[in-house]
Amino acid sequence: MEKDYYADGKTKAHLHHTRVLEKLRGKGIGSQLVKIAEDEAHKRSFKELTLGVEETNIEAIKLYEKLGYKEFMREKGDERKIIIGMKKNL
User: Which of 33, 40, 65, 85 is deepest in the core (most CB within 10 A)?
Assistant: First the structure.
């Protein structure tokens, strides 16, 4: 997953393995975590934030889309899962 199309250390940062416990979902915690990461990346002069999400994680995909992320690629991940690469300009 950590390929240069996800993060290059110059203009692109990558949000890696962000999860909210199932019993705490739906309370805005995920949105807050992503926004904190976006703010921090912006402070460090990154222009783009990327992330990867399993294509079966519809709930997370909807959240990322609501926050302005767009799909830019798909790839096979571990155990033949399809990972959707998403990105947002900061």
Answer: 85
Q: State the DSSP H helix or E strand holding residue 2, giving kind and residue range, or none if neither.
A: none
In this prediction, residue 1 carries a pLDDT of 44
**pTM metric for this prediction:** 0.88
* Angle CA 55–34–57, to nearest 5: 15
Residue 3 has pLDDT above 80, yes or no: no
CA dihedral 64, 77, 6, 8 (to 10 degrees): 160
- Domains in the chain, ordered, with CATH? 12-89 (3.40.630.30)
